Queue: 2 jobs
Job 1
Amino acid sequence: AQTVTQSQPEMSVQEAETVTLSCTYDTSESDYYLFWYKQPPSRQMILVIRQEAYKQQNATENRFSVNFQKAAKSFSLKISDSQLGDAAMYFCAYVWETSGSRLTFGEGTQLTVNP
Amino acid sequence: KAGVTQTPRYLIKTRGQQVTLSCSPISGHRSVSWYQQTPGQGLQFLFEYFSETQRNKGNFPGRFSGRQFSNSRSEMNVSTLELGDSALYLCASSSEGGKYGYTFGSGTRLTVV
């Protein structure tokens, strides 16, 4: 079965500090795409960062970066210089080439940013 | 450009009734997917429509159905509502399918009483 596991239900970080959210996945597919989505209280899921499995280089988007370890099936998200607006539920997700468009999500990690 | 618009934002229905939720994707996006989000089950894929055809379907009973119109707007219908159908229903659109990531709407919060 294709699964995504986020082992940290809750995390907290001090403003301006760095935090890393963990994600592991299980797949037998070779061609897939990984994502981190953020869901603030407004409920809208916002795409934070995307990684193509065939690319070895880790994706970065401003203060957000990933550590993609394909052999270990690990895809962690690092948030640098945390801001109060980063507080949200974060979901790791992936889609594989033959799944069409079906995103498989992890359980989520609730991130609190303390001032 | 305008984002994904879902209506209504909130809905309260009685067991046994049916409900229709609406989703207008980003202009030019032909793929629309629906997800159910609950505290217990998390985010689960319902179905995806592409150019008016259902392209992918999740493991939900036949009470859950959908359709897509020629302008890419999509509707989701749930018949014979059960208490367990209470959830946040999210719609997402994409121009090329899931591998480039989806843009989500703010969801419809359905409460079944």
Note: The interface with chain B takes residues 33, 35, 37, 42-47, 50, 52, 91, 93, 95, 97, 99-108 of chain A (CB under 8 Å).
Job 2
Amino acid sequence: GNSVTQMEGPVTLSEEAFLTINCTYTATGYPSLFWYVQYPGEGLQLLLKATKADDKGSNKGFEATYRKETTSFHLEKGSVQVSDSAVYFCALSIRNAGGTSYGKLTFGQGTILTVHP
Amino acid sequence: ETGVTQTPRHLVMGMTNKKSLKCEQHLGHNAMYWYKQSAKKPLELMFVYNFKEQTENNSVPSRFSPECPNSSHLFLHLHTLQPEDSALYLCASSQLLAKSSYEQYFGPGTRLTVT
């Protein structure tokens, strides 16, 4: 089956520190990979995505590279801000060989990030 | 209005009440989803609708009843709930066509408290 494993949280950092949140996956078929962010009291927002091996997704200073050889999609940011405090979810969806999504996302358990001034 | 909207944002109901959650997507997508998010637990997929047809029901108790009258609207009808059903209920939509966008877009959620 398909699964996503994220590093255990919570993660606590000082402002301007470097962030890494690890994500590894197991999947059959051709996975697309996503990072979602959930701010307090809100729904999930798509942060970035990558659809094939070696793709790099990026948004708002966050980056993640689709590594097929290590089945990983680690999230990184060079300098975090207090406003980045949120829960981060790694997720995957499976496309068949024709490129059609089966329409289901498999999520990791989420990693709580707290950034202090 | 854009994106995915959900109403109400907060709901408190007794175990004998009947209520409904509403979701509307303004993105032209053809698939919609209900998720349950409880504290300390992973996100749980409840129902999937693809072109208004229910394609997945992940062993959800019958006290939760989904309805998808068209590709833009999704409801979750609630009756005789239990306190353990208290959670954040999230709606999402996506476009399921070959080689098109397939990521899901989420609404802000309905915070449900069952007393």
Note: DSSP finds no helices and twelve strands in chain A.
